[in-house]
Backbone:
């Protein structure tokens, strides 16, 4: 599938601000599962952009606005072709004994540890064990955890925010896609299955929007995408922007400025299928 993606963010400040420093992670990753035909980033007020890849191989665009300004517009335009792998079957593919080899095969250490929004707590460990009771295969455990998280949490818009921790998600049992991903990541790590957070887009007939899911590393099969919000493996409607230990590593826009905290943010995402 080929998609044109428009992602526009506008900030309006109550009084002029200055010394704005920003990192933008909106450029889709060039990976085997997708081809990035084009990417264009526009910023107003006009600025000079610099680029780098971060520790987790995400493409970052950086800019600075020193002079005073009352508004900021960041617009990313992407054209991406998706070519996802065939979903893995629901059968034994990797024993837990073999899973112990993962840190030696791939750079998995960070994805087995606690992180800013994910903790390896006794509660998470107990939930993971209960959800996988009787399962002796790591891949089947992943599928069991996906089904569990999908049923354990209630999807409720605006019930959480970008800084909501996994422990609060376990307690309140509700959230949005980011929270589904964080909880499943925590449960996988509790079972010593490498798991990482993914930010991106999901294009469906109902809506086009930013989305979050996660990936697990299965020796012999590599990183495999899992969407606990929809209880499925990834298909051709998913476009990946970046990955990290949790949301804290891949926010779409991050930065700081000097001036008023009184501001309004508007985000618009449009995804069109290209014939």
Residues:
């Amino acid at each position: 599938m080929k998609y044109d993606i428009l992602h526009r963010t506008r900030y309006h400040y109550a009084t002029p601000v200055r010394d704005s420093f920003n990192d933008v992670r909106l450029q889709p990753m060039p990976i085997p599962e997708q081809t990035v035909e084009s990417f264009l980033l526009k910023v107003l007020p006009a600025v000079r952009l610099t680029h780098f890849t971060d520790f987790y191989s995400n493409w970052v665009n950086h800019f600075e606005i020193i002079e005073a300004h009352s508004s900021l517009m960041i617009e990313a335009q992407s054209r991406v072709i998706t070519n996802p792998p065939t979903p893995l079957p629901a059968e034994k593919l990797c024993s837990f004994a073999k899973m112990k080899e993962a840190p030696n095969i791939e750079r998995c250490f960070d994805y087995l540890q606690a992180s800013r929004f994910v903790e390896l707590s006794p509660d998470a460990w107990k939930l993971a064990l209960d959800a996988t009771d009787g399962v002796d295969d790591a891949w089947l455990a992943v599928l069991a955890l996906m089904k569990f998280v999908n049923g354990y949490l209630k999807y409720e818009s605006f019930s959480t925010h970008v800084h909501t921790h996994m422990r609060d998600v376990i307690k309140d049992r509700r959230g949005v896609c980011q929270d589904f991903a964080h909880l499943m990541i925590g449960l996988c790590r509790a079972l010593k299955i490498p798991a990482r957070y993914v930010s991106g887009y999901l294009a469906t007939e109902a809506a086009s929007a930013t989305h979050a899911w996660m990936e697990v590393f299965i020796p012999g099969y590599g990183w495999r995408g899992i969407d606990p919000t929809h209880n499925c493996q990834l298909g051709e409607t998913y476009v990946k922007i970046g990955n990290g230990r949790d949301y804290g590593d891949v926010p779409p826009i991050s930065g700081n400025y000097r001036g008023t905290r009184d501001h309004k943010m508007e985000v618009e995402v449009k995804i069109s299928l290209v014939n």
Summary: The first helix runs from residue 96 to 99. Helices lie at 96-99, 102-105, 122-131, 138-152, 166-172, 177-190. The radius of gyration is 19 Å. The chain has a mean pLDDT of 95.
